[in-house]
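Let's practice the habit of predicting before peeking. Look at the sequence and jot down your guess about where helices and strands might fall. Then scroll down.
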Amino acid sequence: MDSQGRRYSKGYGFAMFYVVGNDLAAGGQSWSGTSVLPEINQFFPGQVPTDLDQRNRLLNYQRDTSIRKHRVRWNWIVDLPFGKGKPVLGGAGPVLNRIVGGWQVAGLGSLSSTYFALPTGIMGVPADYKPAGQPVNPLPANANRSDPMYSYFGGNTTWVTLKNGTQQRTTFDPRLHPWRQQYFPSTRQWGLDASLFKTIPIKERFSMRLNADFFNVLNHPGNPSGVGSTGVLSTRSSGMPARVAQLILRVLW
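Done guessing? Here is the structure:
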């Protein structure tokens, strides 16, 4: 972790923190065992190692997407240059200074990276591109709804001839997705909250504090952080609510 900052002095102060991490996980938990690993009879012969640890590594060793790779956090406080002794309206009298003087702005923010997995390919590419992988029944460029295979296009449905000559419909599943454990950097996710506030002395033991607080001050809508079944980024929200503002009046004694 790296950090930079300045203590509050002469009207301003700030701090910034940066953390980078490349965390890996086996199955997404802090333990592993046979209860989370399919047996080798669930795969075609020779597809996965018979050794439990090697099979666990092949199937589950991957990036832990719950931990961000880049994380930046910051906070600050600044005195606004208005009022008695300040660059603007520095000669303000007691009444005017109570209105324009003593205002401060403070806030905090964060920036972090996100990941998305690649369960499908990218749609809409030129026709002469060759896919890295495709289903058993590829989707034709011009599918005909009257085709008896129409409902099976884009899937892995197949028919297996049994020993007695009958055919059994099943779904081909090698249990090893060609793009498993493949994570790609997504859009940066960031947020910003801020407050405008001041304290007004009333008498020796009494004062009044005014606050205008803004959460998600720039109204950041959230980032897409996944790939949908269509192969394009989903619109899943980052969890940020819309901008919220609140006004607070406190009497202190």
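How did you do? The first helix runs from residue 52 to 60.
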